[in-house]
Amino acid sequence: MVSEIAENRVAEKPQEEFNYITQFSVFKDNVDSWVKHINAEMGNMGMVSRILRENIDNTEHNYELTQEMRQEIEELKQEIKLLKIIQLTMLKSKIVK
Predict the structure, then answer these.
(1) How many domains is the chain built from?
(2) Between residues 83 and 96, which one has the greater pLDDT?
(3) Does residue 7 surpass a pLDDT of 60?
(4) Residue 96 included in any domain
(5) How far apart, in whole angstroms, are the C-alpha atoms of residue 64 and residue 36?
(6) Structural domain range at position 48
């Protein structure tokens, strides 16, 4: 009976080793898959970073253009006021004559 138990254990040992090897292989494949997925996500983050930088640059450029346009509008307002004053003085001078 003892020899039968010993033979069964010897017979089970290769099966256990095969199970461990199979489980390890599955685990290794899963880890490889996770690493590939994480690397792909990190690659996407790099793309998002570039897009975000471009959007920030565009926004800053648009802000600068808006500020320039505001300055030009203010200058035009001043010129219009000056023209109105000139016209009023000309009209006043014509009325006085």
Answers:
(1) 1
(2) 83
(3) no
(4) no
(5) 42
(6) 1-70
